[in-house]
Structure of DUF4837 family protein:
Amino acid sequence: MKNIYFFICLFMTGAVFSQEDKIAYFKTDKTFVYADNEPDSFYAIEIPGDSINLSEIQGAFKVDDYMIQFIKNPYTIEEYTNKMDSIKEIELLESKMNWELDYIQDDVLKQKVKSNYSVFKNKLGKRFLLWEYKLPEMEHSDVDIQVVKNYFLSFVANKHVVCISIPAFEDNDEISNFLHGISENIRVYGSEIDIDALYYQVDAKDDEKNIVYTDSIRHYEIEIPKWLNIIKTNSNIVFGGTFPDIDNIKNALIVNPFEKESFNGSFSKFNKEKVSSLKTGDQLGGASILLTKEIESPKSVNGVAYSIQAVHGSSMYENICYTIDTGSHYLLIFFTSTPQTIKTNMDLLNDFVSRIKILK
């Protein structure tokens, strides 16, 4: 399989269709992508389509034959947090649906409408609410083609409920199936989206290619797994990403390179200072360490491997640290998860680490 390479400090020009404020949208050969990078949103939606046109309706686009609108609404911590169970998440999605239905019935149509909904998970375990309502026939309308149904796909993205809306002019399952398919290509990020990286990922997926992140100065590269959501970091040499969310929890990792000279060229000194000397009570990124334990290293790791349990406020975190000597630099790979998600994501973490290659 062919690869597409992208390098650190590379900024694309012309790829992004539009990027006003924190909303970005762009078109690849086969896909339209809508990305919301506003605080507490951080999601991207990939929609198959050959053509894209703007609509006069705010947040709406015409993708091929579909008029698609993107809507989001905040919710309160009283309504839902990701520490609550799936029942509360479903109740949140249903409450936003019911608010919309009440508005349509009480304020717009002045009559009841027939509605239906279903809850499902996509292949990565993300939960969605797919619902629709049927519009009454307008006997005295001057419009030749009338909307028969409105379809909606709703999901939680950080501190918002996001809804994708499509009107239907025929009463069939085509749009329902279309939205169900879109659910497999929705990314929810743990922090700010790297839009350039997102473009590369979608474009490569269209062509069934892989993308490779290459740092030739620090002599390593990473073949990026398709499931990884690449994020902005505070440094242009630090690589970061978040995992597909599980019950709206998004595990994260960074790959942080260090110059050998800062540790007198001693890998042992680096490992001790950054990982192995950490102990109970030490601070780690604002959290307090509870336990540390050396674990078995994956084959691609030529340094140390540690599990570190830490607590921040009332939240517990399970962290995994790996170190790698690339020949010119030392890499610290730091993975953060929760007790509920670490077992599910360990296979993905090791998949990621296996894709790191030291360059000669």
About this structure: The longest strand covers residues 315-325. Confidence is low (pLDDT under 50) at residues 8-16. The helical segments are 86-109, 174-182, 195-206, 267-276, 342-354. The radius of gyration is 23 Å.
